[in-house]
Description:
The protein is of the alpha/beta class. It is built from 5 helices and 5 strands, in the order E-E-H-H-E-E-H-E-H-H. The chain has a 5-stranded mixed β-sheet. The longest helix has 20 residues, at 98-117.
Amino acid sequence: MIKHKTIPTSQAQLTHHPLIQRLCEDDTIDMSNNDNLLTLSQEDIQYQLNAMVLPVIKNDTVENAYYLLSPAPLYFMLLKNNTRNNNIRLGIYPHDEAEAVIKNHLFITPTLQYRTSKNILACLRARYNNAKNTI
Length: 135
C-alpha cells in the first residue's frame, strides 16, 4: 500500500533507484538551458511542486533518504531555481513494488503522454493567443 508524506525540499534526500540509473543512462534530456526558469516566481515553483507526487521507496541504510522510482527531471530543474524551502509530496511504495512502478513510469506513462506532448509547442502558442484575447 502506498503511503504519502510531505517534506521540505531541504530535507528531501532523493537519489535515483539503481534501475532508473541503468535504464535512463542513455536518455537525452537537455537540462543545460534553464533561462526560462529564472523568470518563474517562487509561487510558480511551488505550484509546480504541488502538482507532483514523487514515487519513492525508503533507503533503509540512510535515515530520511529515499530512492526515486522515476527520472523526475522537472523536479530537479525546479529545485535548482528554488530559493525557498518549499514542500514536496512523496508517494512511498513498498520495496517489492519498486520494479513495477519504475516500468510504469519509464514506459507506460511516456507512451500515454506522447500523443499530447508531441504538439506541445502548437498548444502553447494557441493558449497564449487565447489568453491575449481573453485577458
